[in-house]
Amino acid sequence: MRLKLAALAAALVASMVVGLTVTSADAVDNPNVLKVVRPVPPAGYFVGDSIDIDANFSVSAKWKLSLWSDGGTGTWAKVPGFTGITATSSGNHTFTNFVVTKAQKVQVRIDPGTNLATENVTNELDLTPQPVVIGVPGTDGTLNTPAPTYIAGDKVSLTANFASGTRSITLWSDVSGSWLPATGGSFSNQTSNSSGDKTFSYPVTGEENVQARTSTGLLTNIVHLSPLPTSGTLDPITGSGKTVTAHFLPARNGQATSLQAMTIKTSNTDEVTTPAWKTIATSKQNSTGDTTFSVSDPLEVKHTYRAVSGATDTNSVDFAAPLPSVATGLSQVYFNSNEGDSVNTRTRYFEGEFSMSGSTKNASPQGTPCAAISTVTKSTMKGRGNYSWSFDKKSFTLKTDKAKNLCGMGSSKKWALVANHYDKSLLRNTVADNLASKFSNLAWTPKSVPVDLFVNGSYRGSYILIERIAIQNPKADADPDKVVPARVDIDELKAPGQVTDPTNPNNVLPNITGGYILEWDFRKGADNNISVGSRGWAGLKDPENDLDNAGNPTDQGVSKQQVSYINGYLDDADAALFGSNFTSDTSGWKKYINIDSAVDYYLAMEFMKPIDGNMWASVYMYKPRGGKLEFGPMWDFDLSSGSADRAGNAVSPSGWYLRNPLGISAMQSSKTWFNRLNEDPDFRAAVKARWNAVYPTLSSTSFIAAQKALISDSASENFTKWSHSEKLSSVEVVKSSWSADVQYLSDWMSSRRSWMNSQF
Fold first, then answer.
1. Reported pTM
2. Fold of 5-127
3. CATH class of 231-319
């Protein structure tokens, strides 16, 4: 703000001391110059005035300059708003509108990193504002006293009136405990009209005194601002919580009001580290001070609410919106993130609450109703899936802080909610798991139950709640809620052994030999991805990296030695499988791969014809400690059993898919492990014998009919929300109705069984 030089000059007296001095040492020893250029010397300035300061360095360069001040206390620090400024090519810069608040020293320095040995600091300026001769308040001018009808948060009109003549006027306040210029650019160095008047619209925050002053020391009377007492109340929140009412006195018709919820400090993630009030709805007071808020999406997690209007707060009310439901007879699964944010990414977990209602239908794997699960307040959820993540109906990964027995599937912390969106029957994953259960050499097959899912109060559709693939050893307990079932029941490479034991047993033989879970995946989406000879990529799913809060690997995750070991083992297995002596029992592929699991897995996958099944993606293997590679578990069958008309005759219930390498696009190499295994007469003979043994158990018609009856109401709700006729890709197979899709799947499975049997 530029000062009126004529007015200043008239006001200055001959004895006035100008507040800029350079010590003789600085003047002689330091060729870098710092000086005030506005107001033009020898004019002076007062507290609250803004000045311009020019820095000139003797060596030309476009340095980064910062203005420093000792704050009047001798403690030097950068001045906010005047740092990191690029000088001109001649080494100059003018710092404009520096407000003088007190006597202090200032200096300009070149920021670190310029690599200058000398000449990097200017002289010091002593900024000494001119003393204001305080007269008797009210003898130089007047400031009106507003009518006492205002409350905190209102703006009052304050008019300063001085004798005729244009002046620079500043409004001062003692709200901070001492007299200072009022904060805000519209209250300092404001130019009056020719009559000497200036009106300020001033926000009242509480009890305070105000006064108007000119830069030449003219004063008005002091006005005491005392806002009226206020009150605010928030009604108890009832029902759905979509309508909330607050009351304020005295009324301020039209004043903006907000409904706020206090965020919940989280512990499992960094979603919220410092609780704060978050606005969830806005409205305005009416003429009686009442405000009604419309909340479109009430939070199902209990929060503390208040209403705010101006500077007035209401009382606090705790509330959680009731959980929605659909009448399908299945369990309703609820996840409500603490702050109501959408679970919209696969890269981080959202913290919130998980709960589950009981089912009235016999939906558990034991053929009994599912029990309700009370609210688990420390739960997390994130998105899951690759191709399927692009769909509007998305799948999720769920974790609870303590193991929970969900629908009789045993206790665990790790679960998945699979959308089955590409599969219009909604049954292919369930049917595949049922099929896999007939093959006893597959050590474990995930159990699942159909459920209806709600995320942050929004109905998401019909899902399956399914066990995630993970290393988990069984644990018996008298309490059924504490029974831990086996998942992939192999030794775990526990990280503490790597850190606390100086012999590092998990990084050396024999412990380093297992256990590992791997997935063939062309996307290379694991923490550690291993090139298997020239056959493609397998991701190491367990053990995986352990990360600190900054995202950096710790000693608690997979070690370099373990990655190196399993990488070498896979390369050796690939070399043996594709070597000239690959059929040998002692030096061929059987040295590295368990034939029984390979046969069962191959038959189950060949039956289902999953698009990705020929070592493209979602093909799992695991390696126990001291043992050979085992195939499994089975996973991901949305695109299988005729649901997509892809290359390789995938849609037909006849024809080999994994055995024949010709015409199949979903492969990482021209010949895969399954192709090569089928070139071994021993493997082919074992496949034939195994098929003939399990064939009588593989009829799925009755199972599909039972599952259709179980989820019929859920499917109806699902396709009310999601269009049944929408094709998610040009090759997706969609029938005329959900019932027709289920019948198509049943017929396809029967035809596939008959065709495969005809080949053996």
1. 0.76
2. Immunoglobulin-like (2.60.40)
3. mainly beta
